User: Fold these one by one.
Assistant:
Number 1:
Amino acid sequence: MDDVSFADRLNEILGTAGSILWGPFLLIPLLLGTGIFLTIRLAGLQFRTLGVALRHGLIDRNDEGGAGDITQYQALTTALAATVGVGNIVGVATAIGVGGPGALFWMWVTGLLGMASKYSEAFLGVRFRTKDADGHISGGPQRYLSEGIQGGFGKFLAWFFTIAAIIASFGIGNLTQANAVATGLEDTFHVDPWITGIIMFVLVGTVLLGGIQSIGKVTSAFVPLMIVIYIGGGLIVLGKHAGEIPAALGMIVTDAFTGTAATGGFLGATIIAALRMGVARGIFSNESGMGSAAIAAAAAKTTHPVRQGLVSMTQTFIDTIIVVTMTGLVIVTTGAWEGGADAAGTMTAEAFSRGIGADWGGTIVSVSVVFFAFSTILGWSYYGERNAERAFGLWASLPYRAAFTCVVFLGATTELELAWTFADLANGLMALPNLVGLLVLSGLIARETKAYLDFDPKLRAKPEDVHQFLVDTNNPWRSGA
């Protein structure tokens, strides 16, 4: 009984700390403010270059002549694997269940502004990447904070991020995701969590043995499939409720500025509630500003940091503007949002069931949760491993992979309320040093971005031309770095 009481008390303390960290006076204004600042400083980069970035990342897929461990497309899908997760299903429902349909509007705003933050951290990840003793490329906030910001302050920020990222990789990147997979399979297909744990232990361990190349190959095939399945189910629902879409869009926009009246099980929400929930859940969903995606971006084959930064920027667009929008519209058009906050856990499944039928609707959502959560485990394994190497040296790679794989089994077979609370806190602690770093290094980002896009606005320059550009501008970065 004492153990239970201690766990409950610890969960309460961590929950309070997390509420302060993710509250309206710290991380939310810092994340949103950084996105606004970078959007202005980069002259609306995410709006000016989105078409070019999508083409380069999804159609060109590879930056011929660039050095790196994986292709640009694999770096994109690895980052998407870690980002498109349970938050895109349950997180959206929670935002709408508490803040009303207007919360979705603020999720859009957060995503659009967050694209500037995602571009910036990916740019820096490549700009300051290095080769380790094994010849593998390594980069991310754990490197660019210490190398881009001179002196003890930069080193402090880098170590702060490194420790938080290692902790977060075992929490939000592993325990909670494995638990979501096991719960989904048990609820829908009655699979014993122990069986799920053993299968995941084998699958994750097999993939991780191959390192980032293996992760990149799996996610490049796996991620598009899981997104297509989920979006396909959502389109079927919206097709059957096409007549409600205009009214739903109108409600989303107007409620963002007027609040939402009580109806059904929904208790009503103010403008502040819509804003707070939309921003908080939007940031949690796309991870823009947290620095995690920069670790995958750094491993990409690219001839210039701007090129990979633009590809990585599309991750936030896909996550928030496409996947989150699909979830939100399905919830609003079917009327499932009226169930309120108490129904948030099952709201998306209820919405899909109303549109497709109880059997197929619930199954699509459950399978999507499994896919999204499993892919998140793979993406976060790489993030954690790179930070473990940074903290302890290259020898830590194999022990980290072994420990990470074992924790997958633990997550699948254990109740984890405390782990969810701790994971939220660790995620926020990752974002703090990274956001400070983005602000401090914004001048470098803006200057080199403008110079490169003036030279190659369509991202069509050949490797030899990019190399000559770097020489002519006396830029110390080279694609072989």
Number 2:
Amino acid sequence: MHDAVTRPTPPTDAAPWPRRITQAVQIGNTVVGGGRPVVVQSMTNTDTADIPGSVKQVAELWRAGSEMVRLTVNNPESAAAIPRIREKLEMMGISVPLIGDFHYNGHQLLAGEPACAEALAKYRINPGNVGFGKKKDTQFAQLIEFAIRYGKPVRIGANWGSLDQALAAQLMDENHAREVPWDAGRVLREALIRSAVDSAERAVEIGLPRDRIVLSAKVSGVQELIAVYRDMASRTDFALHLGLTEAGIGSKGIVASSAALAVLLQEGIGDTIRISLTPEPGQSRTQEVIVAQELLQTTGLRAFTPMVTACPGCGRTTSEFFQELAKVVQEHVRGRMPEWKVTHPGAENMTLAVMGCVVNGPGESRHANIGISLPGTGEAPAAPVFVDGEKKVTLRGENIAQEFIALIDGYVEAKYARAAG
């Protein structure tokens, strides 16, 4: 096994721990690990064989900010669809790396569809179901050989729900022989980590370079995930993908994923993340991308779009206008960000504040690049706007929202230099 990596010392100031040093892995036009910014990825839930539907959803995820997109490749039809999906995306000017998610029969699908093997930017292999019995090692080796042949990186992703049962049984037997046996949970965590790490080392033995391997070991419990990744990070320098599997629907999934990943990211662990949300009926799949971005931005690791600070409201804020304005402003800057990213780099770092009364309104507004303090109950019908800490103008009347947004656009135009060309 590769030399273990020392866990970094926590900083004494208000900052995340130093990033864990890992192998840098080139995945299409994106680099994961090696001290690079944490990468956001997502996964489609379309039938991959549905080419128009899959292209549409990949494009939506990419426009929302997903830097890699994973698709299920589970049958010959889906494997045959991958190169056509890649071609249609490229015709749209979308070069997002596509990851093939393989279980059970990946070796057969890559053999049967060489164009799929070529079109994918990375293969995801689950060591718990890559094969069973005597076929397991052979089929795993075949998948790694395809990655070597086509020059592709691989994510070796172990999962609590599909744990290698033979390895788990072996470790249980070894545990019985210990003078002080571990509890069952620790043994299963060890099995999950060993499944990922040992498989990675086996891939290196077969001939896959270390800088073409990403590891993950997903569970559905917050504390278990933190324990697994802390342990795995101490043993190896492979790049790590973070994600809480089967996180859940709505706020439960958001809170659980954020609780687990924020701790690990704060400790410098993790090179790429996915928020595995179950979409609510009718909700866009892009929600998982937005949550991942907001998690990285609120922890100070990356900036994607200007974030709006807004007060929660209280008895002083009987009007809902400040809530409506905060929503309009956030949607406006998120909508403009794809353009600003090209024409006004740095605008993603801008801070905005929409406050609802005089208690904290002026103070919070002064802390933001642009902030507005709306009148609360019984206050004068005036809304002072602060720009970089200084009061710039007071807005009144029916067009406050439009005027405030115009001030934001003007600030971006003046503050962030337009990129050449």
Number 3:
Amino acid sequence: MSAVVEPQPPVAPHPAIAPLAPLLGTWRGDGQGEYPTIQPFGYLEEVRFGHLGRPFLTYRQRTRAADDGRPLHAETGYLRCPSPDRVELILAHPTGITEICEGSLTFEDGALRMELDSTSIGRSSTAKLVTALGRSIRQTGDTIDYTLRMAAVGEPMQHHLAASLKRAD
């Protein structure tokens, strides 16, 4: 049995996520990845931040290889703002990893900044061993720049990804 969802009128963002409102929309760009256990690679990325009128943003990320367009990675989850200077990112990865990161939210010189570190990493029995993740995100105007740090498969925490995304809508 299938259900049909009727289109709903636009709803205003919840007041608790007002500091995150500049992120709403679709962002596209490219990045570079590296790690001691893999060859460096380029990728194309799309990120969508949405909302449902509740105190969180929805988050959907997809990447594909820059050289041949093959799918690489995806993440889906939520971004919460429990206080004006704190942020939480809750994600599921199709590789069997779940990630909860928490950290600071600041605004300086027109830039929104988030500094996030993992507080919990869950994994299925077949997932690679990822022990820690950290993200630095900066949104200024129509640009999001980020870096991702990772400790995995016996390697210590270190740089893994960096990308720059532009507002697409």
